[in-house]
Amino acid sequence: METKRIVFVGVGGQGNLLATRLLGEACLAAGIPAVVSEIHGMAQRGGIVESALVMGDATSPIVSKGEADILVGFEPLETLRALNKCNQDTIVIVNVHPLPPFTVAVGQGVYPDVDKALETIRNAVSSLIALDGDELAAKAGNPLSLNMVMLGALIGSRAIPLDGDVLKDTISKTTKQAFLESNLKAFDFGIAAAHSPLDPSKSGIKS
After folding, report:
1. Which of 146, 191, 160 is nearest to 69 (CA)?
2. Is there a domain that residue 29 lies in?
3. Is residue 191 part of a domain?
4. What's the domain range around 58?
5. Residue ranges for the chain with pLDDT beneath 70
6. What is the DSSP letter of 194?
7. CATH number of 142's domain
8. How far apart are CA 37 and CA 147, in angstroms?
9. Domain count, the chain
10. ∠ at Cα 185 (183, 188), nearest 5°?
């Protein structure tokens, strides 16, 4: 099958590592070869966290500069920083809700304008799917379900050959019962958002 290189990037605590693992498990359940990268970053300290999954006939999960077919960004600034993984044919799926780093919070830095960051990303790649994942997670009843929203958006983009029901089944088997309903709802919200993404030039999000 065609190889798909997917990079996930975000901030520690957003759940992108779990999203990567769930996608890998769903691929294997569907009979799709997949390899997942090791953890990169400081997941326990709110630092940058990057992981990758390669679907198809590949033995290494490493995605080098310019090789990503899909970039899933849980935070807009970190998505912009990971733009070197992309090329002009890459599809980028980004949560437009900013999570400013500690230096910004204490007044030692300035968070970039989100709309300008999104415009830079859009001009560099084939397609940009922008959504307010935090808002959708809260709407689903669980602010911590951002990772489910982003997985749903990935499926909704139709960029990978994986049926959404397979991923839902994987989520159902790994989610605590108390959070299952909200996680599945968040997943569905992500799919819908990918079908009707935000206009990147009018995100309405302020840093």
Report:
1. 160
2. yes
3. yes
4. 4-202
5. 38-46, 102-106, 108, 200-207
6. H
7. 3.40.920.10
8. 17
9. 1
10. 110
